[in-house]
Amino acid sequence: MLRKHFDNEIIELSNNLEDIWISIIKKYEMIFDDLTEVQKQSIIDNDLVINEAVVTIDMKGIELICLQHPVSVDLRKIITIVKLSTDIERIGDRIIEIVKNLKNIHTMHEWGPLFYEMLKIHFILGNHLKKTLTWYKNRNYEPDVNDYNKKCKLISGLCQKLGDKVVENFLIESSNVDETIVFLEVINILDKISHTTQSIYKWLDYQEIGVL
């Protein structure tokens, strides 16, 4: 394979990854909006399209590695794209879990301050997630392990505190059991998304410095 053609293949692979990334972030931003049942189902149904796109990226990445035997810099790029696609797909799956959990719950806003604390976590995590895409697209990522590890710990801590408050509220107010379970599950999923986002930062590190 000619060098120019190989470079174009990597660019196309990267562009396909960015398309999935953008789609996942848009879904993430919508999960606590006042969605109709049709919109919720559309988000769920679109998951299959995302999964198929990720499989295509994985297969193409493996093909390029096997056929081209790329030098270390190119190999890191391809491996990073494949690994990032897996993490992004995982976040997409978590988003679907949240949408499914909320599908039959129509009174989350009635949780008042607790619900707004969840929205705060959602906002902080969303900015953290969007920053990964911005850095990847602009190619201006500067590795800072302490920064993204600190952010992950911050979000996990907020999730833990909110979970404790939800349990305390249930014991005091005798809240609806099903809604309490859903609330706790959504908090848990947000925490999982935070850890997967941390993994994305680690792969961005790998692309830049070649060390995990």
TrEMBL record:
| Any one biological process term the GO annotation gives | negative regulation of phosphate metabolic process
**Domain PhoU per the UniProt entry, residue ranges:** 39-101
Quote the SUPFAM superfamilies the UniProt record gives: PhoU-like (SSF109755)
Query: Which parts pass through the membrane?
Result: none
Q: Which domain of life is it from?
A: Bacteria
The name this protein goes by in its record:
PhoU family transcriptional regulator
Taxonomic lineage from the root: Bacteria, Bacillati, Bacillota, Bacilli, Lactobacillales
